């Protein structure tokens, strides 16, 4: 039976998040806090923040999307990287946890009250890696079917808008940076996908 990195991450994230819901001390130690990273050298927060969530809805949404796209990406990586596929997937996921907090870190290194949590940035990286590989696979978003690349453009446009207007307390910058990292990582590790992506776009327009 094939071992799924995606499912392993989901299980660990779910168990950790649920434990932290009733353990404020654990939550405080795992959340991303730029001040603590810089002044107390608690660098692990870049990674652990992706394993805790604000509530069950936040957790369920991220894990559902991760399952939907992560299992596909693992299969694609097997085709691209053979036995090294699990390593590439793990590197993508864990580096994206760091990449999605770069701007937040820079802006809040002296703000002890700023916290961020959730796997959204890493999940965005996985989603956009899939979009680069299969830009015209059909997705159903709230019952509306659309090509993956169109969904990606709409998603980024909305995230940029919400980030600019500051209408929510969600870390939209993390979503954007995670998505861009997913694209960059995919094209760097498999450069042939760039010409493949362009060719697919040309064929559809």
Please give a structural write-up.
The protein is mainly alpha-helical. The chain has one domain (about 5-205): Rhomboid-like fold (Up-down Bundle). Helices cover about 70% and strands about 5% of the residues. It has helices at about 5-20, 25-30, 35-40, 45-50, 55-80, 85-100, 100-110, 120-135, 150-165, 170-190, 190-205, and strands at about 140, 145. The protein has a two-stranded antiparallel sheet with strand order 1-2. Helix 5 (about 55-80) runs parallel beside helix 8, helix 8 (about 120-135) crosses helix 10 (about 170-190) and helix 9 (about 150-165) packs antiparallel against helix 10. The protein is globular, with a radius of gyration of 17 Å. The N and C termini lie far apart (about 40 Å).
